[in-house]
């Protein structure tokens, strides 16, 4: 990878003006994505993950949404300074999105082939015939059987898993440098989840893409990530290499998320309380009302700054216990193993992401024993 990151986000603040007040959906988020790297943003629903991804290409609705501050530098260019027209030329070309609901991402009145051709010709000056040939090739590469025949089918003629494959083909139509995938497997059966994740991994290598994967599923994180960004209530609690975060989770919130997985912690309990108000967040650390390790310093001032974990500037945590003179063992329980007190059922206890994820190996070849199942049988057969 190049020494310079492909995407660098610094102090991003995205707000929404509502009748109830100013919603601080993303409140000072910073992280980088290297070339060819997969970064996962993980956290509960309402933590600001999706808004972070949509802010990169200004997909948030304005009004009421607004990028209030921060820099989003993509390949040396600050996207926040671009005109709407210039950003539209970039969006869908060098930066592509795959959304959680493929049914909503595809137009039901046009064939899937026509929609991919449209995406190609919008950004490239090619003939309809050449665009069609590429669209058929993309459908074939994402695993659509009989791609030439299925080119003229409509979205309702595909299963949920196949619709998501079509959405991925459309996103890859212009060979993007960065793919932003927002919960791309949540609505799919566990078997299809595995297939889609494997497909994304293969295509990332083939197209030499960087990937920003947004998920609440820690099993997915273990499966695909190079680095992890843990978000809570619009703030980054911890970020670092996937091995470091799984081997040595350093923020109480990260440890609680991991403890909810079978094989780590008791895998059954959940943290009391809920996410704080986004219009009136608490002083100090956003997580302190739910944290068993909170002290007076956690309840004062602003969110703690990032502190390096054991001197590693690539693994940082926003927690007062890691400040100079602090005692990280308060959080770690006197050891480096995971397992802090209470556990949280990520995203409200629906059972997703309940893969048995132990301490991952150091070589990034992380494979969860199970990625969790949402209980749906709708896509049990990933049929054509």
TrEMBL record:
Q: Which UniProt keywords apply?
A: ATP-binding, Cell membrane, Ion transport, Membrane, Nucleotide-binding, Translocase, Transport
Task: List the transmembrane segments.
Answer: none
**A molecular function GO annotation:** ATP binding
Q: Name one GO cellular component term.
A: plasma membrane
EC numbers for this chain = 7.2.2.11
Pfam families cross-referenced by the UniProt entry: ABC_tran, oligo_HPY
Cell location: Cell membrane
Q: Does the keyword Cell membrane apply?
A: yes
**Domain ABC transporter span(s) in chain numbering:** 7-258
Domain of life, per UniProt, equals: Archaea
Q: How does it sit in the membrane?
A: Peripheral membrane protein
The family database entries (Gene3D superfamilies) matched by this protein are listed as: P-loop containing nucleotide triphosphate hydrolases
Complex and partners: The complex is composed of two ATP-binding proteins (NikD and NikE), two transmembrane proteins (NikB and NikC) and a solute-binding protein (NikA).
Q: Which NCBIfam families match?
A: oligo_HPY
Protein name, per record: Nickel import system ATP-binding protein NikD
- Native source organism of the sequence: Haloplanus ruber
């Amino acid at each position: 990878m190049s020494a310079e990151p492909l995407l660098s986000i610094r102090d991003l603040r995205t707000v929404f003006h509502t009748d109830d007040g100013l919603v601080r959906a993303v409140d000072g988020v910073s992280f980088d994505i290297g070339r060819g790297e997969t970064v996962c943003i993980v956290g509960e629903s309402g933590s600001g993950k999706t808004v972070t991804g949509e802010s990169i290409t200004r997909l948030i609705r304005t009004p009421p949404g607004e990028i209030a501050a921060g820099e989003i530098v993509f390949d040396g260019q600050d996207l926040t300074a671009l005109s709407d027209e210039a950003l539209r030329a970039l969006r869908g070309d060098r930066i592509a999105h795959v959304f959680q609901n493929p049914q909503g991402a595809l137009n039901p009145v046009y064939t899937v082939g026509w929609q991919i051709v449209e995406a190609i010709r919008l950004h490239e000056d090619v003939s309809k015939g050449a665009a069609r040939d590429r669209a058929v090739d993309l459908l074939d590469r994402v695993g659509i059987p009989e791609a030439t025949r299925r080119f003229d089918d409509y979205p309702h003629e595909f299963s949920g898993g196949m619709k998501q494959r079509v959405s991925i083909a459309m996103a890859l139509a212009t060979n993007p440098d960065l793919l932003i995938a927002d919960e791309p497997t949540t609505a799919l059966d566990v078997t299809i989840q595995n297939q889609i994740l494997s497909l994304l991994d293969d295509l990332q290598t083939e197209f030499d893409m960087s990937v920003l994967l947004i998920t609440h599923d820690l099993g997915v994180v273990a499966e695909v990530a190079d680095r992890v960004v843990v978000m809570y209530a619009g703030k980054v609690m911890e970020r670092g290499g996937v091995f470091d975060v799984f081997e040595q989770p350093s923020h109480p919130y990260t440890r609680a998320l991991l403890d909810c997985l079978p094989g780590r912690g008791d895998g059954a309990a959940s943290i009391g309380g809920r996410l704080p108000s986004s219009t009136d967040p608490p002083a100090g650390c956003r997580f302190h009302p739910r944290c068993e390790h909170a002290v007076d310093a956690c309840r004062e001032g602003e969110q703690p700054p990032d502190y390096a974990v054991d001197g590693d500037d690539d693994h940082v945590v926003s927690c007062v216990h890691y400040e100079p003179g602090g005692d990280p063992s308060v959080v770690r329980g006197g050891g480096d193993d995971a397992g802090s007190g209470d556990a949280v059922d990520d995203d409200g206890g629906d059972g997703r992401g309940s893969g048995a994820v132990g301490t991952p190996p150091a070589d990034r070849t992380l494979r969860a024993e199970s990625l969790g199942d949402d209980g749906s049988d709708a896509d049990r057969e990933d049929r054509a």
